[in-house]
User: Fold this.
Amino acid sequence: MRRELLRPRFCLPTALIRLLIFLLLLQPSPSWALEKYGRPLPSMEQPGEEEREAEETLFGGYFLTAAFVSNPTFAARPDNTGLVGLRHMLHLETDLYKQYLTFYTDQNFFSDRRQGWIKLTEWDGTYALTGLVDRFGWRIQYERDAPLDRSGVIQSYADALATVRYQAGQDSTGSLFHNGNYFARPDNTGRALFRYVAHADLDLYRNRAVLYADVNMFTDRGKGNKVSPTEIDWIVGLALRWKDLELSVYREEDHPVDRNTLVQKYFAVQLRVAFDVPKRLANSLNPFAATNSR
Assistant:
């Protein structure tokens, strides 16, 4: 599901927010990061640490829960009905071969604030393979977004994404090579073909306070110009960390580019808890590991 943010009553003017995103994406910093599933969650690793790339992980990930504090238009189902109240997500990943080949899955659940906030109304499941070689990354992903409380529109796609890391950040370009019904605009029109992503983290204080921004663009395979964006989604947020915990506030707006139709937007507060189990820890707990190594 591709949607996210409303302007809170105390927010900065939209033009200033856009300027902030632009400056973030240009600011050189060693702590830039792009989440594998393309959402704006900064890495919890300390800047300069390469442990995640150098060591195989048995499994790891994080759980997050978010309250959409202000939400005038961000829908609670793939057919754009309802308004999201809560979001819960579990991210799990495991290294199949060091950093070169990793499997991950994201399970996203949304509730409808118009139906009491608690009852879940949408389930988005994502499954992917990804890898990293030097400063180049890749990803092949399948996603299916479906309603939970009624029959209705199901959005699904498979895409391939290539990423380049450099001093000023990370850029990604990809194609939805299979698109069952994944739309090219927030108003559920068109069918997405290409995706362009830019994501940046700015470490404000020892990776305990991080300002982050994300821009996500889609094109429409049904248009004559198939490479020109028809939707642009932007997000800016502030994350505060302590050990494996992160509290963040963020704002997102999803805009059509080629017409004046629905804009989906909200403002959210989110808590994220990270966990990681390296293979060396599992081996140390295995009573047969020492015997087998002889």
Summary: Helices lie at 14-26, 51-54, 279-285, 289-293. Residues 140 and 232 are 22 Å apart (CA to CA).
